[in-house]
Design a protein that fits this description.
It is built from seven helices and nine strands; from the N terminus they run ββββαβααβαβαβαβα. The protein is of the alpha/beta class. It has one domain: Rossmann fold.
Length: about 250
């Protein structure tokens, strides 16, 4: 991990851009974080739209996390931003767009090509980022995962024992194989669902929630579209992390 820039935001949060090999990322730490008082860490997932485009929402989430005493970090997803494209995913995205515009059902084959290559590449990169972040003296456990592509979060919850709790956003297509993986998830979960999300298969989201094997899992559903998450939903997610990571 190499830090390439640093700035202090007006609320005292320290923001550092880094590269991990060829992967760009950003780390935010509260002013209270130090080697003698390392901060718990929340990994901020996001859709594959690029860090530059997602930055306003990510920094807002990071600042709220810092106010609760958490460090937060994110990395650029495979095929996003300035990273090399994933042709199979780009083709699947184009096929998905054509199906939706034509009012046709979205087949499993399109969903698999759209999501599974991203999961397969992104999860090991998140684990490598976690290795590097936890080696910093001002960062400590436990670790949470928040948001992003729900299949990425599901896979991470299965394979990464350092993640103690997760807030997952139901708002993306889910390959059928991920339902089998969901049954292996045992960490506490808080799942956010926008009931009128125009791009989300609501029944699929409900079925995935039902499949999760966690003894503690909460579904927080709100009326409204994909970007209409109310403030109180974010507050509930923050309270979830405070309960499980502190």
């Amino acid at each position: 991990m190499q830090f390439i820039s640093e700035q202090h935001l007006d609320d005292g949060v320290r923001e550092r851009e880094f590269t991990l090999g060829e992967i760009p990322g950003i780390l935010w730490t509260p002013a209270s974080a130090s080697s003698s008082a390392p901060a718990p860490l929340i990994l901020l997932g996001h859709p594959p739209l690029g860090l530059h485009k997602m930055y306003p929402r990510l920094v807002d989430r990071a600042r709220h996390s810092a106010a609760d005493g958490f460090a937060a970090a994110t990395i650029e997803l495979p095929g996003s931003g300035d990273r090399p494209r994933l042709p199979v995913v780009d083709q699947a995205r184009a096929d998905l767009r054509r199906a939706l515009e034509a009012g046709e059902p979205v087949g499993d084959e399109i969903v698999d090509r759209l999501v599974l290559p991203l999961v397969g590449k992104a999860v090991p990169e998140w684990q490598a980022a976690l290795d590097a972040l936890l080696a910093l003296p001002e960062i400590g456990g436990p670790v949470g995962y928040s948001g992003g592509v729900i299949s990425v979060g599901t896979r991470l919850a299965v394979v990464e024992p350092r993640i103690s709790a997760a807030v997952l956003f139901a708002g993306s297509f889910v390959p059928r194989v991920m339902f089998d993986e969901a049954r292996q998830v045992t960490i506490p979960l808080h799942v956010l669902l926008q009931w009128d999300d125009e791009g989300n298969d609501r029944q699929s989201a409900l079925d995935l929630f039902d499949a999760f094997g966690s003894e503690e899992k909460t579904l927080h559903a709100n009326m409204g579209g994909h970007t209409g998450v109310p403030q109180h939903a974010g507050n509930a997610a923050a309270q979830f992390f405070t309960r499980h990571l502190k």
